[in-house]
Amino acid sequence: MNAEYGPENSDARAKVIAVANQKGGVGKTTTAVTLAAALTRLGKRVLVMDLDPHACASVHLRYYPDELSASVNDIFGEHPGDMGELWDRIRHHHPVQEFDVVPANIRLAELEVDLRNRKGKGAILQQTLEHVRYEYDFIVLDCPPHVGILLVNALVASDLLVIPIQTDFLALHGLKLLFDTIKVLNKVLPRPICYRVLPTLYDRRARACARVMDLLALKMKDSMFNTVIGMDTRFREASAQGRVIYEISPESRGAREYEDLATEILAL
Question: How far apart are CA 71 and CA 122, in angstroms?
């Protein structure tokens, strides 16, 4: 490893960004993969980790669980073995993508049972990431849409929690569940979880969306990004092709908005 990125240079440690919301359909996976791509376009070294048993981010990026012999699930094994060898097995890279990926596996859904008696199970991911945090500028975690050991691991490991929330009144209810989890963890963590809300799927023509935006701004204040992600059909087109939006429409509104988000995160 280049000494420039060694432990003696603390500024080189990757910032871990967890993307989570306990309500589905809010643009969580789109945010994770597109933000990762936007950060690489700004010259940053990025790793994407899919922690969702549904493996949506993996499939979006053309990594199919049935075809892979290793996945993020291996991190949570009882005896993961040599960490260098482990990371060599679970990390993947497509030539057309500028970031590394650790795909998910359906067996992640069994971790609640597999880890029930394991000590320190909430910090497994944090400890494992220490072995690669000097190789990247950002590590982006696509989290599962429910409270459990995977989400706890992601929040414990994260430096920043990005909460995508659809600009719809029903989507506001999912925030309470996530904030309840954050409150519980903050009681035992050495530092409180830093989070920012990201408005997504914003329809500029809908008055209801504008009212939700006003309510979010009132409630979240400085805990909300200035960037707002609007509706853009190119996200769906990119996903259908197993690509990110920058591969099919880099000048689209959605692509520019995620670049704005990446720039905003760099300034935090």
Answer: 19
Q: Domain 3-196 - what CATH class?
A: alpha beta
Q: Determine the Cα–Cα distance for residues 12 and 146; give it in Å rounded to an integer.
A: 32
Q: Letter for the amino acid at 239?
A: S
Instruction: Provide the whole-model pTM.
Output: 0.93
Residue 255 one-letter amino acid: A
Beta-bridge partner residues of 50: 142
HSE-up of residue 65 (Cα within 13 Å, Cβ side): 18
Q: Over the chain (268 residues), what is each successive 10-residue block's mean pLDDT?
A: 38 91 88 98 98 96 93 86 90 90 95 92 95 97 92 96 90 78 89 95 91 91 96 95 95 98 97
Give the SS3 label for residue 16.
strand
DSSP state of 194: P
C-alpha to C-alpha distance for 251 and 227, rounded to whole angstroms: 17
Per-domain residue ranges of the chain: 3-196
Nearest to 20 by CA among 113, 107, 145: 145
Strand partners, 142: 19, 50
Helix ranges (DSSP H) in the chain = 28-41, 56-60, 83-90, 111-114, 124-129, 149-157, 173-186, 207-220, 233-240, 245-248, 253-266
What residues contact residue 116 under an 8 Å CB cut-off, 6+ apart? Answer: none
Rounded-to-integer distance, Cα 126 and Cα 76, Å: 11
Give the residue among 197, 201, 202 at the shortest CA–CA distance from 221: 197
